[in-house]
From TrEMBL:
Gene3D superfamilies: Cytochrome P450. It comes from the Bacteria. InterPro entries: Cyt_P450, Cyt_P450_B, Cyt_P450_sf. Transmembrane segments: none annotated. Belongs to the cytochrome P450 family. This is Cytochrome. SUPFAM superfamilies: Cytochrome P450. It holds the Pfam family p450. PANTHER family: P450, PUTATIVE (EUROFUNG)-RELATED. One of its GO terms (molecular function) is oxidoreductase activity, acting on paired donors, with incorporation or reduction of molecular oxygen.
Length: 391
């Protein structure tokens, strides 16, 4: 029998939204398996999240009533889609994309105004995420602004749980993608040989993907890429502004960037959460959860669990790497992790080549992003200029 419901917390409360990370730290200590009318169940502890990730029979990804490729699928339906997309993030395509990625990062960093307050989100985070996503997919620059506005509308609709607005936002994105698909079909053999065109040629169980499947897949890739890459850059630059010794260490040894990036993003999550739905009655942390209930896996809390990482704010990349859930775990581990890691590494390499330090700007207070986004909405920092360096 399900336990009597009472509201353990309000994920949209002002004190939560002002600083999600600290609020989740508090909940992990006081109510690690929590009910809210907004999210239903939320898991805050690393061990509880891992239990869910390792049992996809009990905790299904098919949360939404709408098609979600492949994020919202379970095996065996999930398997052929996953098999089709994983090669796009293999070492060879990553190596081919790396020079273009570096050119885009270098061009953006070269535009950076140094020795004066700069809003990192406006100057670096969002532009890089938009440019790099469009470049990887083979999409035109004319999509930068519409996609930027679309991401913000998607965040607002998700936070409000406004289903009508969410449907409208999804339809808007579908329109952009269907235009891209139609233009490639009309071009025939003259269509660009890019990731989007290649995906149109993929087959699932012997059949081409439908437009509905392609749009869903590309929507999931785009939401994930734009939101998390933008959040990651704001988080990384903010952390280095507050930890100048680490900045100097990375300047002297940029080869340490990959593990440093993963560890910083463990402490301050760019992706806040994912969801599952129970297929049977289950007990977690002493709470009885009936079948058919939604569960939010809070990466932003699990990756800071003292029982797994000790002091969650202690920078220990080698010690913490095995348990870091930055890209998830299990059969739904992020397939795009190699791309994200490469993009962030290259961006930070190019940034370090151009500056001697990052300082907190006293001009304005930063503004943290609100759920479902991580990172910052506004982040004034000052980048100390230098002569360009080579690594």
């Amino acid at each position: 029998m399900a336990e009597q419901r009472h509201q353990d917390w309000d994920p949209r409360a002002k004190n939560v939204q002002q600083n999600q990370i600290r609020a989740y730290d508090d909940m992990r200590q006081t109510c690690p398996v929590a009910w809210s009318d907004y999210q239903q169940w939320t898991l805050f502890r690393h061990a509880d999240v891992m239990r869910v990730l390792e049992d996809h029979d009990t905790f299904s990804n098919a949360v939404s009533a709408h098609l979600s490729v492949p994020n919202g699928m379970d095996p065996p339906e999930h398997t052929p889609y996953r098999k089709a997309i994983e090669p796009y993030f293999a070492p060879e395509p990553m190596a081919r994309f790396e020079p273009q990625c570096r050119d885009l990062a270098r061009a953006l960093v070269n535009e950076l105004q140094t020795n004066q307050p700069v809003d990192v989100v406006d100057a670096l985070s969002r532009p890089f995420a938009l440019r790099i996503q469009c470049a990887f997919m083979g999409w035109p620059d004319s999509l930068h602004q519409p996609l930027s506005e679309w991401v913000m509308k998607n965040h607002r609709a998700t936070l409000a749980r406004d289903h009508a607005a969410m449907a409208e936002v999804a339809e808007e994105f579908d329109g952009y993608i269907r235009e891209l698909l139609d233009s490639r079909r009309q071009a025939g053999e003259q269509a660009p040989d890019d990731v989007t065109t290649q995906l149109m040629q993929e087959q699932i169980n012997g059949n081409p993907m439908t437009d509905e499947e392609l749009v869903s897949l590309l929507r999931n890739w785009t939401v994930g890429e734009l939101a998390t890459i933008s959040a990651s850059i704001s988080i990384l630059t903010n952390y280095l502004a507050h930890h100048p010794a680490l900045f100097n260490d990375l300047l002297a040894a940029p080869g340490q960037l990959p593990e440093a990036i993963d560890e910083i993003l463990r402490m301050d999550a760019p992706l806040i959460s994912n969801r599952r739905i129970t297929t049977r009655d289950v007990e977690i942390g002493g709470r009885r959860i009936p079948a058919g209930e939604k569960i939010t896996l809070l990466w932003a809390s699990a990756n800071r669990d003292e029982n797994t990482f000790g002091d969650p704010d202690s920078f220990c990349p080698h010690q913490n790497a095995p348990n870091n859930l930055l890209y998830g775990a299990g059969i739904h581990v992020c397939p795009g992790a190699p791309l994200a890691r490469m993009e962030l590494r290259i961006f930070m390499e190019e940034l370090l080549k151009q500056i001697n330090g990052i300082e907190v700007s006293g001009s304005d207070a930063p503004e943290r992003a609100m759920f479902p986004a991580g990172g910052f909405n506004y982040l004034p920092l000052q980048f100390l200029g230098s002569d360009p360096k080579t690594f």
